[in-house]
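Supplementary Text 2. Reproducibility record for the structural model of the 302-residue chain.

All settings were left at their defaults, and a single model was retained for analysis rather than an ensemble. We include the record here because the model underlies the residue-level annotations in Supplementary Table 4.
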Amino acid sequence: MTEFYRAYGLGIASGPVLPELETCAPPDGPADLEIVTGAVPDSPDPSEGWQAISPFVQVCEGRFWLKVPGVARFTVEHGRRVVVQPEDGIDAESVRVFLLGSVLGAVLFQRGFLVLHGNAIDIDGRAMVCLGPSGAGKSTLAAAFAARGHRILADDVVPVDADCAAVPGFPRIKLWQDAADRLEIATGDLDRIRPELNKFNMPVRDTFCATPLPIRWVYLLTTDNRDEITLTPISGLNRFQPLLAHTYRRRFMEGMALRPDHLQRCGALAGRVHLARVQRPGKGFDIDGLVDTLLADMAQAG
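Retained model, structure tokens:
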């Protein structure tokens, strides 16, 4: 049975059930993206020009292959079709972790988006994007903004269109248990992203922004040994490299021969936004203080 969903501006027809996504009515014509369960080779045919970028990822122009041992194999073709072959006995939640992350990231690259690793938040009709490595606190920050009434556009994967607008993903934030405890969010009724992980899917349907918003501010979130939050603007030619460095699954993009367009998109975004590095203490995460610091900087930058 096929269900229909909407995410990242795409109408999606999917055989696998995707409860994290917003459902929608069937389209009048073909869906933008089709996701099916089917056979995926254990390794691609080398005669077709595939390039291995890791032991479990291979790419060629317009195509992507991913193997997650013990979970599933996936292929993506030209941003329009995804084939999933789960391993026998694997839970659906584990398959969706990779389907809604790395695999949809490959889809977005193939469809021409600049794809950043971060979160996007609605601040009075413009988007603030927070970038950073895993563990920096991006999702915790997004949940804190949501608690203050700000709408969430995207968590973890932020596509940017040709007009430098953040494109909405789906109404979910992924939170580790310690982050939920810090924000006083009960996790008893939340679904784990994988059965063995203390990381949860927190729905944000009531505070979800489904409309693309122009990006005005970009913050690079890091941690250090200082006792206070520091914020340092980034200017001039130094603005380009951080966007490239925080590209989501950058090797995917480079392997699929998309680098020239991607560099152009990074340059266009760098020229339009207020960009700053934010360092928070590695211990004693003052989430309210961080939100206040960013709101004050955004107000000053305009």
